[in-house]
Each structure stands twice: as C-alpha cells, then as structure tokens.
Amino acid sequence: MVGPNVTLDKIPRLDTTNSSVDIDLIEIAKNNSGGSAAVAFMSYNTMENLLKADFFNTSNDTIKTMMSTVISATLPKTTNTKLTKPVNFTLRHIREFDPSGSLSCVYWNISEWIVDGCSVLETNSSFTVCSCVHLSTFALIMQTSHPPESDSLMYLLNLVCVIVGLVFFSLALLTFALCQWSPGVNNVARINLCVSLLLAHLLFLLTQQFLSLIRRQQVLCAVISGVLHFLFLSGFVWMFIEALLLYICVKNLSQISSKKREVLSSGFLCVIGYTVALVVVGVSAVAFPEGYGSEACWIKTDKDFIWSFLGPVCVILALNIILFICIIISLISTLKNLNAEVSQLKRTKIMTFKTLAQFVVLGCSWILGFFSNDSQILEILFLIVNSQQGTFIFLIYCVLNDEVRQQYRKLFRRLCCGLKSNTINSVLKKR
Description:
By secondary structure, this protein is of the alpha+beta class. The protein contains 11 helices and 11 strands. Helix 2 packs antiparallel against helix 3 (about 190-210), helix 5 runs antiparallel to helix 6 and helix 5 (about 220-250) runs parallel beside helix 7 (about 305-335).
C-alpha cells in the first residue's frame, strides 16, 4: 500500500516463489482521491491443474502446456483502478522449455484463457516476462505441434525394445540367482549392473507411459528424475567395474593357476558401485535442485545441468573404451603365445567372442548417443543396441557358459520327466 505522503520513487518488485510483478503503484495512487492505492499479488501453487492449458482455445491444433503457476494481481481499496502503464509479470517456467514452441501470456476470462491485452515481452529457457494492460488472473501457456508419424514409430520401437531388454535382464538375474557357479567366478558386478539397468529402464518406461499424470505433480516428477539419475549412473559405474574385472581376468589368461582368487571383495565393489552415483546425485541436488523434473521427468538442460549426468558418463565411457582396447591387445598377444592345444584354443576363441560382445555390455555403444541427433539411422541403432544390454548379458554369461548350459539341460529334463510322470499318473487314475 502507498499513501499520499509516500517517499519512494519506485515501488519495489513484488515476489512469490515462481513469479514477480513490477507495477507503477505510485502513479496509480496519484490518480486516486486521497493519493493512496494498494496492490495484492498472489500465486496459486496447484491451480494450473484445475485451470488447465486445454481451456486456451486456439484455431490451430497444437499441444498446449502450462508453463507457469497461476497468478493474480488486483488493486484492493483503490477507487480508480486504471493503470498508468502496462504491468510486467516475470514467470518462472515450471516445465522444460521447448525452443520450437510458441509462448502466450494469457488471462482467465470466465471459462477460458484468452490473450487480449497481454503479450510476451522477453523470454529465455527459465523465465518469461509478460506485459499486460490490465490486472486479472494470469498464466503462461506454450503451444507445440503434434509429433510427426516418425516419432510415433520411434516410440513404438522404443517400447518394444525396452520390454525385450527387461525380459532378458530378468532371465539373466534368475540365472545368476538359481545356477551354481564356480568359486572363482565373480558375478557381483553383473548382478548389480542388471539390477540397476532393469530398475532404470522399468522406471523410465512406466514414467513415459503415465507421463501426463506424473507431470502434473512437479515434486513427484523431480523425485523420479533424481532416482533415474542415480540408477543410470550406478549402472555406468558397474559397467566400469565389470570392465576392470574383465581386464584383470584376460591379463591372467596366460598364467597357469589352479585356483582363481577374487581381486576385490564383493562388499567393497558394492560400496563403490552405489556410493559414487549417490554422491554425484546428492551434490547435484544440493547445488541446483531445480534441475530435476523436466517435461519428460528427466534432468533439465538449464545452466548445463545435464552435464551432472553426461560428465560422469563421458569419463566412464572413455575409461571403458581404453580398457576394452587393452583387453583386445592382451587377447591377441595371448593367442599368439598359446600352445596348439585344441581345448585351450577353443576356450580362448570363445573368450575372444565374449570380449568382442562386451563392447555393448560395457556401455561403449552409448557413445552413439552423442551423434544420433542428426541421424535417424544412428538414433534407431542407438535405441536398439543400448536397450539390449540385458540380452547381451544373458547370451554371454548364461547361454554361452558351458556350466550354465548343463544346468539348463538338467532343469529341462526334470521338468520334462515331471510332466511325463504327471501325465502317466493321470492316465492310470482314469483307467
């Protein structure tokens, strides 16, 4: 409020959590009897769920998204409410801004959002300034075009590939849990890699299926993006641990040893595998909590926050590629120095094939993601290959493992014998 004896030259900006307003209240007061005026500025945290963007009627068929909280500004106890100049509202984007979208500053008129008297003054990826010649209830709405048919096909392909990958992740985990393994085999990294990526892909798939519902709950959307950040990062850390263990295993191929020993304990590996990701996510959340909860419930690109994920991923990919090259070199050297024993040569060839297939398991193929934006072929290849890490893990460590195949055969024989005996018993009972 200002009275006739106000000493301010300018009214300071009025702020709420996600918005602010600049209004020339002093000049308004001068035009009122008694020289006084008052302004009330309010922000409604969840009103956008009721006064939805769909109430904004436009001639073109577009996807409408509410980009701000709903705000109101009024002039209570003010006789002459005519504005001396336009009022500027600064609205923070509550969802990720699409550069291809069109922003509209709107106000609520009985039963719909309309634009009359409001315009966009300036905008960036985080904020938009709206200028209006009257006071009312306002919001910011973004219009984007419907996705082309190719995007729908990509969505369907992604859905099928992810589901197939989840099935093989589950089969691999069941095999690791139920089969008996040699004492020298360390499956800790593989099991935790499967768990991390299984949960990450499953959560991401469910989020995308129910995105329209989840996106309305900004806190839930931000929490999901933080959990996805942690799960994918922990998956990459486990990829690095698996690459390191594989390198140690290949380096020891030429050494004759009656008993293999674990280089690192399982407990220590688990601490590394999850603590690194937890620290990165924790520091990121403290440094820039607004970075979580994009339009797709993922990490926002504001202030280059996406590098809290891409940075560690790039480091791990670089290390894994270096280790992979060292593994290949070590294998080639070992093959040259081998005796002409058929069994040893056969085992080494199988090991060579498994090592080449490890290119996908160790996440090296994720590097395709940095080049897929400009090529749909690379995008499809990236989607297929990286959704099938579970498939490659199942093939390499389960299907191509002699001991596991023998246990599979025994299990199938028991199942077949059990079915036959049940069938015979049922026939005998009928007779």
